[in-house]
Amino acid sequence: MSREAPARIGDRIEDVDTPALILDLDAFEGNIKRLNGALEGRNIRVRTHAKTHKCPEIALRQIQAGAVGVCCQKVSEAEAMVEGGVNDVLVSNEVVGRQKLARLARLAKRARIGICIDHASQVPALGEAARAEGVELDVYVEIDVGAKRCGVAPGQAAAALAKAIAVMPGLRFAGLQAYQGSAQHVRTNAERKAKIDFAVEAARTTRASIEAAGISCPIVTGAGSGSFMFEAASGVYDELQPGSYIFMDADYARNEWAPPLPRFEHSLFVLATVMSRPVPGRIVVDAGLKASSVDSGLPTVWQRPGLEFVRASDEHGVIEANNGVAPPELGDKLLLVPGHCDPTVNLYDWYVGVRAGVVEVLWPITARGALG
After folding, report:
1. What is the 3-class SS of the chain, one letter each residue?
2. Please, where in the chain does CATH 3.20.20.10 lie?
3. Mind listing the pLDDT tens digit for each residue in 293-347?
4. How far apart are the C-alpha atoms of 117 and 345, rounded to whole Å?
5. What is the CATH number of domain 13-21+264-364?
6. CATH topology of domain 42-248
7. pTM of the model
8. pLDDT (tens digit per residue) in 164-183
């Protein structure tokens, strides 16, 4: 159940209750424009990833800016997006289980729905679910392009899956899912490009194998915020799936950002309050492990040189003041850049959208906790 928003429209950011998820609207809108500007003149589609934001309000703004639709990772995320008015959703993940497949097929009565597979046994199960609801599902074959997570081997194995989809009533073979997730946080552009070059060649040869079998392969989709310009320039990818570009986080900040990749701004923050100053140089804020994901490292303190977030427990974040920096006072507010934006978003019910220090919008995170 969604809790009461931590602010009201018109409040100053200093008056927002904490911990709160703050969205800098100028930076957020600038990031959307920056992505579109980087791709201007290229014949390539953008399908933004909603697992990052989990919010139909944001998805609709991305679509208004030119995206063809969104990706999700879970059926429940897709349900939240469709309920919020999004009419084109790709679940860029495998879905297994009778109940989930039935929900996915029912959703296809209200929107265009795609799904990924990487095993032959998924084909009859998907077909049965689609026929039971009288719908057709777009089905993509996911290939392993180097991340060693999901995905069938590129080439003939993928072509065999495409053929099985193409002849199954209730299903449409829609193309290839070729996302190299492990490349997104490789630090240098050269190393990232090398990984994407491998992915591009795997996608190229797989599409050729499918087309040699007489099956059209209309879409190769994939790419992320840390690599999308490499896929865009490949001549192989038809659609890109960036997600974190709208927010950025402390881990993405450690990447090299150089042409052809644009540098996106930080727009997502956790607002925290100084709740304790037990000894000189140590500050404790009310944002710990339950307020910011630390799987990709601790948060950083935004625009406060000399303040370092050094450890977190359930409800406490410990910050040290270094180099003679005057520590903030009890009750002061600090903005933290989360280590990893996606799981941090999943901890909150609301975005508090701020412009020029004033709350302008409150957007519910309706797919929060959508795990199934």
Report:
1. CCCCCCCCCCCEHHHCCCCEEEEEHHHHHHHHHHHHHHHCCCCCEEEEECCCCCCHHHHHHHHHCCCCEEEECCHHHHHHHHHCCCCEEEEEEECCCHHHHHHHHHHCCCCEEEEEECCCCHHHHHHHHHHHHCCCEEEEEEECCCCCCCCECCCHHHHHHHHHHHCCCCEEEEEEECCCHHHCCCCCHHHHHHHHHHHHHHHHHHHHHHHHCCCCCCEEEECCCCCHHHHHCCCCCCEECCCHHHCCCCCHHHCCCCCCCCCCCCCEEEEEEEEECCCCCEEEECCCCCCCCCCCCCCEECCCCCEEEEEECCCCEEEEECCCCCCCCCCCEEEEECCCHHHHHCCCCEEEEEECCEEEEEEECCCCCCCC
2. 42-248
3. 999 999 999 999 999 999 999 999 999 999 888 899 999 999 999 999 999 999 9
4. 27
5. 2.40.37.20
6. TIM Barrel (3.20.20)
7. 0.95
8. 999 999 999 999 999 999 99
Structure tokens at 84: 């919020």
The amino acid occupying position 170 is G
